[in-house]
Specification:
single chain; 299 residues; 434 Repressor (Amino-terminal Domain); 2 domains; 3-stranded antiparallel β-sheet; 9 helices; disordered N terminus; disordered C terminus
Length: 299
């Protein structure tokens, strides 16, 4: 595949850097700027989280976020925020807030070790990156069925988060699991169909696709099988998006949905650190799926 910078249609913001596999670069709406950074490695993230003062940085950042009147996914008013430390040494944020979607004064108990699930760090510090994610998404996003599991304290604050009941304790959990399993099976089947369509669109065999992408050939054969059993990872889709010259954008969207669903059914302690990689895979796949992408009839 030719190395073409497909910048048409990019919105202003941080995008995968065409010149560096792990990098991101800022697009100002017209051109690439000199501002670039890398996704933090697990070692970099662990070093930041274990550094003295990490909790205080996040706490101060969250207070500043709301004091500046910055936006959240849905309207939220911060009432109070404080910090404690769990027995294992992980700092924990306690945020009390009011959300526009329900009347109860709500408390969030969040251990500050998980990587953000939205956006990219850009030129922000890792603490500010986490703060933005907590305010925008953790607090701003409606609780959905988690609202049924809120626990009231003696002060009339209804709590959720780490250490409180998770979705697996919902009275409807078994039915939800069955629905999700059926949905995942359908997504795997849809992914296999579109993967096959994308491969055939450029005349590539499964063996050739495996060689070009580095994804195991047996894994690809299973993905295209009648009843696929193995889930392709976010990294697999990133490689396939490049090898198939953009023909996997639909799969990338399906992968994003599928990767998110298990997290809704698991305790936050067990969340995987693949969100940044998934965002990059999604952006890169979209990047190559433009009408002028290599291999399209316009190039």
């Amino acid at each position: 595949m030719q190395n073409v910078v497909m910048d048409a249609g990019l919105t202003r913001g941080w995008h995968p850097d065409p010149s560096r596999p792990r990098g991101i670069r800022f697009w100002d709406g017209e051109r690439w700027t000199a501002h670039s950074t890398d996704w933090p490695s697990d070692d970099e993230w662990d070093a930041a989280v274990s550094a003295p003062g990490w909790g205080e940085l996040v706490l101060a950042g969250l207070r500043r976020y709301f004091a500046e009147g910055r936006a959240t996914l849905e309207p939220v008013r911060l009432i109070d925020a404080s910090l404690e430390v769990d027995p294992d040494g992980v700092p924990v944020l306690l945020a009390i807030y009011e959300h526009a979607f329900w009347p109860e004064r709500t408390g969030m108990h969040r251990r500050l070790y998980r990587t953000p699930v939205s956006g990219a760090p850009g030129d922000r510090s890792l603490a500010d990156w986490l703060v933005d994610d907590i305010a925008w998404l953790d607090m701003g996003e409606p609780l959905g069925r988690r609202h049924d599991l809120l626990v009231e304290d003696d002060n009339g604050v209804w709590w959720w988060g780490d250490g409180y009941p998770d979705i697996t304790q919902h009275h409807d959990y078994e039915r939800l699991q069955q629905e999700v399993r059926a949905h995942l099976a359908q997504l795997r089947a849809n992914d296999g169909e579109v993967l096959r369509t994308g491969r055939m669109a450029i005349g590539m065999s499964v063996d050739e696709l495996a060689a070009a992408s580095g994804v195991n050939v047996d894994k690809l054969k299973d993905a295209e099988g009648a009843e696929p059993q193995v889930n392709l990872t976010a990294d697999d889709w990133l490689r396939l998006a490049v090898a198939l010259e953009g023909h996997t954008w639909e799969e990338s969207e399906a992968r994003q949905i599928r990767n998110a669903l298990p997290e809704l059914l698991s305790h936050p302690e067990h969340r995987k650190r693949h969100h940044g990689q998934r965002e990059m895979a999604r952006a890169l796949a979209k990047y190559y799926f433009s009408p002028n992408a290599p291999g399209s009839e316009n190039t």
